[in-house]
Design a protein that fits this description.
The protein has about 160 residues and is an alpha+beta fold. The protein has 4 helices and 8 strands, in the order H-H-E-H-E-E-E-H-E-E-E-E. The model has no long low-confidence stretch (mean pLDDT about 95).
Length: about 160
């Protein structure tokens, strides 16, 4: 997998709002506020946009999005139409979910059918090795989820 890559913020925000089109209005407003914050108070830095898919976050090691260092500023996901509980983790690792217990930096619960959820940290949470997204059926990460139950979504990062 390649190292984190960045591009112009306007292009990234276009992708974000294209993906969020038709989703919950509160989610859209939260991302609009994050965009405004980064444009006006953070100097409109380059960002990275990384998508994840249900058929990869269910894999034994999860889905590796990129390697290296970056600050995660937002994660958004929407679960497929199933009632099975799913816990999505953002893990600081170079290739798989092996550092979950020490570097599982963000966990998001999806407990209802077609549920969407997001995480925003305007200051960013540091990832030093890489970014792996992995879904489990328990919050402790003991049992892998199946693709039919997992969310699709995206992660936004800035350079550390």
């Amino acid at each position: 997998m390649a190292a984190f890559a960045y591009e112009g913020a306007n292009l990234v925000w276009q992708r974000v709002f294209q993906r969020l089109s038709g989703e919950n209005a509160a989610t859209i407003r939260a991302f609009e506020a994050l965009k405004k914050y980064y444009a006006t108070l953070k100097g409109n830095p380059q960002l990275g946009y990384y998508s994840f898919v249900s058929t990869s976050v269910d894999d034994a090691g999860g889905q590796l999005l990129a390697t290296g260092a970056a600050d995660v500023i937002a994660i958004w996901g929407k679960k497929l139409a199933t009632a099975t509980d799913v816990f999505l983790w953002a893990i600081d690792d170079v290739d798989d979910d092996s550092t979950l217990t020490t570097k599982g930096n963000v966990m998001m619960a999806y407990l209802a059918s077609s549920e969407e959820s997001f995480y925003i940290n305007p200051a960013g949470i540091a990832f030093g090795l890489g970014l792996v997204m992995k879904a489990y059926t328990a919050p402790t990460g003991t049992t892998d989820s199946t693709a039919a139950d997992c969310p699709d979504g995206f992660v936004l990062v800035t350079a550390s």
